[in-house]
Amino acid sequence: MSSAGISLINPHLVFEKISLSEGMRVADFGCGRTGHFVFSASRVVGEKGIVYAVDIMKDVLESLKSRLRSEGYGNVETVWSDIERPGKTAIAPGSLDVCFIVNVLCQVHDRSAVLAEASRLLKPGGLLAITEWARPLGPLGPGEGKLLTPEALSALGLDAQLERVSSFELGDYHYCLILSRK
Questions:
Q1: What CATH number does the domain containing 74 carry?
Q2: Helix intervals (H) in 23-128
Q3: Which of 54, 58, 94, 148 places its Cα 20 to 30 Å from the Cα of 88?
Q4: 126 φ, ψ (degrees, to nearest 5)
């Protein structure tokens, strides 16, 4: 993982807040080409855990598969899915301890559907860790009209049986909102 990526969003700070540990089952919705959270989470959950790298872009998943094979990550599975279509992600319902959504909700059309899909896959008491932009960084990040507040996302989460646990600043440009599946 690049030091630039870590300095912008350090996944280990999120892992610490949610007590990510060995043996957990996690998914990263919209994992992206770099797999920023995927590779770090894979090391934390270890051989007894599993990480699902979920994305809608097939070329992104192929690129990740190649890196996973070459670097020997045996506990990561790539999953193609449109996370805006609840019921379509090929992960067993109620099987996840944690779901990560990093810089994705500001880009999708149906945020409620994404939260419903995450909720469907989480165990009761499972955690959804949403990392979003608090403010843009030059050309990076969403425009002012697309920034989402933790309060707005918490309200959307209620319809998906998700209740707010906490939120915290994550560097200079992001925040992390933690929701729990009821």
A1: 3.40.50.150
A2: 36-45, 58-71, 111-121
A3: 148
A4: -65, 155
Mean pLDDT of the chain: 94
Is pTM beyond 0.85 here? Answer: yes
Kindly report, residue by residue over 81-138, the tens digit of the pLDDT: 999 999 999 999 999 999 999 999 999 999 999 999 999 999 999 999 999 999 988 8
For 11, 86, 98, 109, 143, the CA distances from 14, given in Å and listed in that order, are 5, 25, 11, 25, 24
Domain that residue 10 falls in: 3-181
Q: Which amino acid is at 132?
A: E
SS3 letters for 110-121? CHHHHHHHHHHH
Inter-residue contact 5 to 34 (CB < 8 Å): yes
Q: Which of 97, 99, 182, 114 is nearest to 148 (CA)?
A: 114
Question: What pLDDT does residue 138 have?
Answer: 82
DSSP 146: G
Assign 145 a pLDDT band (cuts: 50, 70, 90). confident
So what's the pLDDT on residue 7? Answer: 61
Q: How many CA atoms lie within 13 A of 24 on its CB side?
A: 24
